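$ ./design --mode recover --in tokens.txt
reading tokens...
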């Protein structure tokens, strides 16, 4: 019997979404909170960053660093920064990094998702001319 195989199986390549990678992005928050009522802006900005991380990294599980949360809320609930530089790290849930084990250990040992995204803040003065960059994890 002739079997139909997926084109991906024939090349032997695996999806790039399975790789552990770290990238830095500039998120334009101003357009994301535009039109949002004042008392919902900072919470909406946090949700928008999580949604951005979910789309760009392809993981359902997204964790926000407390420092990033503080940066989004720094100017109060209604004055969200126009842009913010964010480091997104796609990490494996099974690998527990000892230095960060208290911060980011995956609580469910048998989680459905193999990978999660950790979003942290990159403090900068000017954000105008920065592109998305891949950060070396070494």
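writing sequence...
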């Amino acid at each position: 019997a002739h079997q139909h195989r997926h084109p991906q199986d024939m090349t032997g390549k695996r999806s790039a979404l399975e790789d552990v990678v770290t990238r830095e992005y500039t998120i334009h928050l101003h357009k994301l909170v535009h039109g949002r009522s004042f008392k919902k802006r900072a919470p909406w900005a946090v949700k928008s960053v999580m949604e951005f991380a979910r789309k760009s990294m392809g993981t359902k599980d997204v964790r926000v660093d407390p420092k990033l949360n503080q940066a989004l809320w720094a100017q109060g609930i209604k004055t969200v920064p126009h842009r913010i530089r964010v480091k997104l790290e796609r990490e494996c849930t099974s690998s527990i990094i000892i230095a960060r084990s208290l911060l980011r250990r995956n609580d469910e040992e048998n989680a459905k998702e193999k990978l999660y995204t950790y979003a942290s803040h990159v403090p900068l003065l000017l954000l105008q001319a920065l592109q998305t960059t891949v950060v070396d994890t070494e």
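exit 0
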